[in-house]
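During the no-cost extension, the postdoctoral fellow (Dr. R.K.) reprocessed legacy sequence entries with the updated structure-token encoder. One reprocessed record is reproduced below for audit purposes.
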Amino acid sequence: MPKKRLLSLKPFLILLSVAVFWILVPIVFKSSIRSVFYEFQAPLSTGASYVRELQNYWAARTKSKNELYDAGKDLARLNATYELMILENQTLKQEVERLEELLQLPTRPDYRYEIARVVSRDFNSWWQHLEIRKGGKHGIPTGAPVVFSGGVVGRVIEVHEYTSTVELLSNSHLRMAVIIAGDNRPMSYRGSGFQTLQNPVGIAEYIPNDINIDDPSNPPRIITSGMGGVFPAGLPIGYLRRLRPGASGMFQDGDVYLDKRLARLTEVAVLIAVEGNYQ
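Re-encoded structure tokens follow.
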């Protein structure tokens, strides 16, 4: 009878032994094992993303000529719009350079864009992490900001050989200095963490008490302040909604509604500083 009881407890004893062993193992060894395991499984995720793109390619080949013609017209309109935006951006850039020279202001750091495809999302904490198909081999640095057409996506927190992990805006560990568009008073932003079946949301803190949401259809826009040296100034974060008194009573807190497209991103851009390192 004791022998049978010992056999029934054997799996638990093995699990306990492994847990104790893992706790006692040095952190350097744990990090090495984790890195090796990640590099081993990374080709599987990357290969799956290539297969999905191949499926989409052959699915597009089955479209009729009329559908392709309509898609071509829409694409031509978008290209014309983007060409106008590029010209406007060049004009604004020249104006900024002229004002910097006139006022003898230091120039802002230049960035280059590294376009990367999204491999997967972390389903254990939805809205929290993205895996992208670019890594150390492509010059991606840890801490680099990640953006898309709607504004900030997050920042790179881990870099591997051919892939990188991006911490999303809604991650509760991500914090940054932000401002309201048209108001230079700095505030604090952080992600609100995991929220089931809801749009991604963040939290703005230290909002001045004179800030109000007068028109719910046109809420204040939250943008990056440029403080901290990671995110350039002026990048869209989201829209401020539902103000409430802060813990100190001197400021307000508010929910920041993020872009819904964060849930279905397929491609992002990593901003890599031409000179300087990220902290």
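Residues 2-51 form one domain. Residues 65-103 form the longest helix (39 residues). The remaining legacy entries will be reprocessed before the final report is submitted.
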